[in-house]
Amino acid sequence: MIDSIVFDLDGTLYLGEKVVEGAIETIAALEAEGYRIFYLTNNSGKMRKQIVDKLNNLGFPAHSGNTYCIARGISHYLVEEEIGPIYLIGTNDLRRELMSNEIVIKEDPGVSAVVVGIDPAFSYQKIAMALDAIDGGAKLIVANGDSSYPIENNRRLPGCGALVAAIVNATGHAPDVHVGKPNTYMLELLCREHGLSPERICVVGDMPESDIRMANNFNCQSILFDPGGNFSDFSNMKARALNEIISLLKKGR
Length: 253
What we know:
HAD-SF_hydro_IIA; HAD-like_sf; alpha/beta; magnesium; six-stranded parallel beta sheet; Rossmann fold; metal ion binding
């Protein structure tokens, strides 16, 4: 029986700094019905605390225990697999999160892995460093393959996948590990830390190729959220408005 809901963030609960209509009310109603709420984002540019703070400032009930982001996932993966030192392509916030977990970051190609997240300062020089490192035997570990992500006013910005594509094109080396969606690593981590199993989880997201495919890969339920009604065949359930979620869950409960 489903008792835990895992929400995507960008495009599902908010767009940039704008809350999606009905999002806060839906989560409050779900909590009143006894559901546990979790947040899982492919955003690789922010530390977990920053994402929690943003959720709280927008009015969502978030804390470090129910919020899962790429920085947290990559940190856990590198420590768990004893990988290091690394060369990092990513934001200063991602760098701080990794360093807080005692992950050694070097600015030379003599590393065991190249880790790639979103990076507004991405450059030719960074591609060249990654090329040298990978040619020397380093693994390529990437946050996700998202080519873009949605913001306000129907705009999109380039995602981590756009950077990864440049590195793959230069090196001829496909990523060894995708930490984020649609890989199930972060969902597995969430379940381990909270004693959950796939049959107790429903993922809610707006991206068929990441959110819904992750749920399918994990054999758990999902709800594809799309106000435009452009639904694919990926999801188990579909919603054009977030306030439809409770009735969909009750039908399956």
